[in-house]
Amino acid sequence: NAGVTQTPKFQVLKTGQSMTLQCAQDMNHEYMSWYRQDPGMGLRLIHYSVGAGITDQGEVPNGYNVSRSTTEDFPLRLLSAAPSQTSVYFCASSISRSGANVLTFGAGSRLTVL
Amino acid sequence: KQEVTQIPAALSVPEGENLVLNCSFTDSAIYNLQWFRQDPGKGLTSLLLIQSSQREQTSGRLNASLDKSSGRSTLYIAASQPGDSATYLCAGTYNNAGNMLTFGGGTRLMVKP
Known about the structure:
The complex is a heterodimer of chains A (114) and B (113). Chain A is mainly beta and 114 residues long.
């Protein structure tokens, strides 16, 4: 049981380049989300999805796009990378259980934008 | 805007000590409060989840409490061990689906042998 799988684990980009961070889960979870973690700060929600075909913005969505064509996959796209997007990105998934969702997180993708 | 704060940012204790990590939140309309553990270079592992109707949850040497009226949660770790060294994050949920979290900045705990 793989859980939540994120690729790549590390990536270095130049300003203006585009890339996609991949996230896949095999638990048939409805909810998926992307967070970024910056030094000394907690995680901040970028985008989330409550099911296939449905996405919405979180706290810090600017500069990122998402789509949810299948239940399993939730890729995060950076259209034109900026140094301010240097961060560690975490994908998480969850399913309602007893009225509360326990999130399962991926191992993270560390992105550096030069 | 909901804010979640954790103080101190770092804590160092000798092995065997009982300790308390603090988490405060500004919006009492919270659905649940979760505590996570994060090891260096790794993702987050959920430790305990307290629903708004509950006062506390226990798992092994860990006990988490929630006081909505005062806007506080605590994570109590009994008989700390070097293996407990990690960053501990608390996060509040403000939607009833429970999947959108507002995180505190974390407390980096070091337990010295």
